[in-house]
Amino acid sequence: MIKLIKNAVKITNDNIILTIPLIIFMWIIGAYLGYSKFTADTLAEIVLAGVTLLFLFGAFLSGWFYMVKKAVQLSKNVFVLDEERAKAVLNLFKFIPAGIGKYFLSFIGLSLLFIALVFLFGAAIYNTGAYFIGNLDLDPLQIKQAMTTPNDMKTFIDALSDQQLIMLSKWNLLFIVASALFSFFTFLWVPEIIYSTKNPFMALIYSIKKIFQKFLKTIKLFLFIMLLNFVISFISTFAMFNPFVYLLTMIIYFYFLVYVIVLIFIYYESEFVKEE
Fold first, then answer.
1. What residues contact residue 166 under an 8 Å CB cut-off, 6+ apart?
2. Which end of the chain has the least Cβ crowding within 10 Å, N or C?
3. How far apart are the C-alpha atoms of 196 and 106, rounded to whole Å?
4. DSSP one-letter string for 208-225
């Protein structure tokens, strides 16, 4: 596991240009969401905006994940000159259109399946919580306003009774556990599509089977990533108070995203590709 983690750091550092498509895509999505917020007024326009977002995600995910796969494979090559390596790394951008051609429909399907699974899983968790914990009977508008600023959240929490605070804690714990389980069982879904099975539904089934084939190794890796995510989330809580800290946090965040994907890909390739 230590060797895997170190190898992922080296590959990420050697192929740091993987962050460029990710940053550009997030900027595009942010700009498009901001634009759609003020222009999509009718149901037809909202549907069109949703379809456009779906296609944007399908194109980006298919091209970028294929680029990551090629970066992992490139790390196995031996280069005599640094110039040759630099040229090969820059050529990774050429794999984005090829990835879109190969996996666009797969990631459209994955996106739709993911939305459906989140909805069904969320409904199941909500009904479970309502049955075993009970309803908080809070106004949704009140909750939305409370999430505006930390001070609003503090005021909202202070206004709750002891019984409501206990119930809120139980609901938070339920959603944390449920989110972790959902993330764990979809952990290898993306590399399964990129390396093995283009059908997104079958890829999900096969990826879950692979999780149980290497259950202990997979859960160790998953817990390590969750720990990193917790650290990043903790750091980000201080970002809003200082522009420099915010900039530094964003750099760390993008590096973290690329590192996690690289780590999952090399884990999948080392544990499963050689067996197929």
1. none
2. C
3. 12
4. HHHHHHTHHHHHHHHHHH
Per-residue b/e over 146-164, b at no fewer than 16 CB within 10 Å? beeeeeeeeebeeeeeeee
pTM listed for this prediction: 0.86
Q: What angle do CA 84, 25, 33 make, to 5 degrees?
A: 175
> What are the pLDDT digits (tens) for 152-164?
666 666 666 677 7
pLDDT by residue (tens digit) across 110-121?
999 999 999 999
Rounded CA-CA distance 53/46 in Å is 11
Integer Cα distance of 134 and 60 in angstroms: 41
Cβ-in-10-Å burial (0-12, 13-18, 19+) of 51 comes to exposed
Where in 4-143 does DSSP place strands (E)?
none
Residue type, 81: L
pLDDT > 60? residue 276: no
Q: Is-contact 11 262, C-beta < 8 A?
A: yes
Query: Which comes out higher in pLDDT, residue 88 or 157?
Result: 88
